[in-house]
Amino acid sequence: MTTNLTERSHAALGDSTLQRALGKATNTFIERRREAITSVDDWEALRVRARRVKEHTINHLDHYLTQLVENVEAQKGKVFWAQTGEDVSRYIIDLARARGVTSVVKSKSMATEEIELNHALEAARIVPVETDLGEYIIQLANEKPSHIIVPAIHKTRDQISDLFEEKLGQGRPHEVADITRLARQRLRNEFLSAGMGITGANFLIAETGTLVLVENEGNIRLSTQVPKIHVAVVGIEKVIPKYSDLSVFLRLLARSGTGQKQTAYVSFLNGPRQVDREPGFEFHLILMDNGRTRILADEHMRESLYCIRCGACLNVCPVYQKIGGQAYGWIYPGPIGAVISPQLQSLEQAGELPFASSLCGACRDACPVQINLPDMLLGLRAAAKESKIDKKAGEQTMMRGYAFAARHPKLFALGGKLMRTFTRLMAKDGQVKSAPFAPLSDWTKYRDFPAPRGGSFRARWKKGTK
Amino acid sequence: MRVSLFITCLVDQMFPDVGEAMVSTLRSLGVEVDFNEAQTCCGQVAFNTGYRPEARAMAEYFLRTFENDTADFLVAPSGSCSAMVRNFYGELFAQPDDTEWRRRLDRVRSRLREFSELLVNELKLEDVGARFPARVTYHDACHLLRELGVSEQPRRLIRAVRELEFVEMDAPDTCCGFGGTFSVKFGEISDAILREKLARISGSGVQYVIANDSSCLMQIAGGLSRAGSPIKTMHLAELLAQR
User: Fold this and answer.
1) Which of A51, A345, A346, B43 could be joined to B58 by an S-S link, Cβ 3.0–4.6 Å?
2) Given A256, A278, A293, which residue is the final one in a domain?
3) Whether residue B8 is found in the same domain as residue B116
4) Looking at residue A2, what is its pLDDT?
5) Within a domain: residue B67?
6) ipTM value of the model?
7) Burial class, A223, CB count within 10 angstroms (exposed 0-12 / middle 13-18 / buried 19+)
8) Is residue B94 domain-resident?
């Protein structure tokens, strides 16, 4: 990546259209969620149950994946274990070539975004068409999604109208209804001509070999049923043990994500489509690792894998609300993105993300499976320092010096006295407005810094605090 | 009752008025107050910035300082520093051979209370006899709210202050953008978050914003001062010491 997080967020903060779009969208989602969770008798109990299921499944992942694969294969589905993103792309390209497929329809899938499948398909001269409205917009704009469930959250209606006019050449659709009508017309033909449909999955049920897909637009159902071949690309952490576990997650997911009690469609797929007079439908399940077993191996960080990709932590995050998804620089933004991007990619590449948080904890409260996101961020910060990936010599010296002084009260008091003297020298009317050196200058660039009056508390105590 | 102050480095070195206000309020309630002069800092800044060995050394020093304290409670004018000891120290002593340290930690953390917790939960008080004729709002400091689950106690204490008008701002539980070293590492983002907070504070039409953490107050006051706002910040301890 050529830019750093500070540069990208600077651009985002200076973009007033983006700021309006983000503010409006995140507030709407927060309100909708707040309302939706009141329709559940005991929301907290539901979260606890969901977390227990995830905890159990992730701790016995090998068992449930084996069971899942047996059941999918028994229903004539093909299963492919992919260790990396390239393995996924290669499998799909080989399959497409073997079947003479030149165009595929795709439903919204973070797993395929994660591995940049579209690039690989295009390079192999296979045309991928995104069929989720938000993803379709993003594909037309040649951008990356900025939210886990609302990929075009950063775009206003006007921007989308302009985009459609420019890219589709069918006039300017003004109202939301006109925009969706136009997209629908275009996408119908794509569904009918595509040789393959590629989806992700929200859940995989081990005991029945069922793929569960949640959506509002109906494009997923079309992607899985119209083309002859359906390929599902799914992270290995998406498995749940039993059919009876599902209701807990469906209730949590819709409410946390879009603030709905239930999404418009929930599809259950068992093996390839069966049509009496039309044989030859295929179903391929690609179980993708791509760094997940690495997370699994770390007992402390393992709960990062409980995520059901609802996006609630993004909406409530004060940082996400301000900089949006694209500034994060990786496909998963917000608190969960700052936790899993450095783990799925590497700490070297995405190690600055865990530091870009005030650790306020709103994400943990919103998380339907109670992932302790601030704790995960702290763990990654420690890992970045321990491995010297986030090495800042000045900061390290200061921190070591401070830790030393903190074990020597007299030195500590002397340091405090020097600090107070310096700040008083730089202050006007008790406030430091600018400073010649960091980190104080990093503070005074945006805020005033108070110059303390008088001595320390300990000095006053000695003199006999009132 | 006898309490021992965990004054916190920030109040000690930057905001001693807050410490003195806490002492005078406690004494006015008949509480005996001790101050252990060996204390320095809990190490949160090192822990939150990823420097675990440094944080561990400071945590060990903290526990040595306070483990033999015989007061009924340790009291801190900060939710964040209280949460560091109560909720996060455990991670610094998580190795199998840290059993002895964990035992020492339990002895200290079971007695540690944030100031408003001590007054409301332990002393069973709401009205401490304060008087302050002004319109005020309250900012929920994140760690106090989400790590310690304290939101009602400070509000009850504020509402009981004579001649005071309490106004809830819109979304009082959203972050002020401070976040320790986050505020200087990502100053521009921190400032953007702060501006949202300041707009909500101004929108509530108050003269004072109250919080229980001097760190949040330093961020909020810095923003108010830079914007030339007439609104002032005040720590809860300072409010409760007004007569």
Assistant:
1) B43
2) A293
3) yes
4) 76
5) yes
6) 0.97
7) buried
8) yes
Give residue-wise pLDDT tens across range A153-185. Answer: 999 999 999 999 999 999 999 999 999 999 999
Cβ contact, residue pair A447, B219, below 8 Å:
yes
Size of interface A-B (CB pairs under 8 A): 208
Beta bridge partners of A239: A204
Q: Kindly state whether residue A336 falls inside one of the protein's structural domains.
A: no
> Distance of alpha carbon A278 from its chain centroid, rounded?
39
Tell me how many degrees the CA angle B102-B108-B113 measures, rounded to the nearest 5.
Answer: 130
Q: Residue A407 CA to chain centroid, in angstroms?
A: 41
Give the torsion sign (CA, A430, A435, A438, A441). Answer: positive
A406 within some domain: yes
What domain range includes position B139? 135-240
What is the 3 state secondary structure string of B22-57?
A: HHHHHHHCCCEEEECCCCCCCCHHHHHCCCHHHHHH
**Backbone phi, then psi, for A229, in 5-degree steps?**
-115, 130
> Which residue in the set A358, A416, A462 is minimally distant from B13, CB to CB?
A416
Residue with tokens 């701790």: A59
Location of structure tokens 């980190």:
A439
Q: Are B31 and B3 in contact (CB under 8 A)?
A: yes
B116 and B140 share one domain:
no
Q: Looking at residues B47-66, what average pLDDT do you find? A: 98
Q: Among residues A293, A315, A347, which one ends one of the domains? A: A293
User: Is the Cβ of B55 closer than 8 Å to some Cβ of chain A?
Assistant: yes
In a domain, B129, yes or no: no
A406 and B58: CB-CB below 8 Å?
yes
Question: Which residues, listed in sequence order, are joined to residue A229 by a DSSP beta bridge?
Answer: A196, A282
Distance of CA A383 to the CA centre of its chain: 21
- Alpha-carbon distance A99 to A95, whole Å? 6
- Report the CATH number at residue B192: 3.40.50
Q: Is B193 within 8 Å of A449 when comparing Cβ atoms?
A: no
Count Cα atoms within 13 angstroms, Cβ side, for B106.
7
List b or e across B128-138, with b for residues whose CB sees 16 or more CB atoms inside 10 angstroms.
Answer: bebebeeebbb
In a domain, A126, yes or no: yes
Contact at CB, B43 and A403, closer than 8 angstroms: yes
Residue A120 has pLDDT above 60, yes or no: yes
Helical spans, DSSP H, in chain B: 9-13, 16-28, 44-48, 52-66, 79-83, 89-92, 99-109, 115-117, 142, 152-159, 182-185, 187-203, 214-226, 236-240
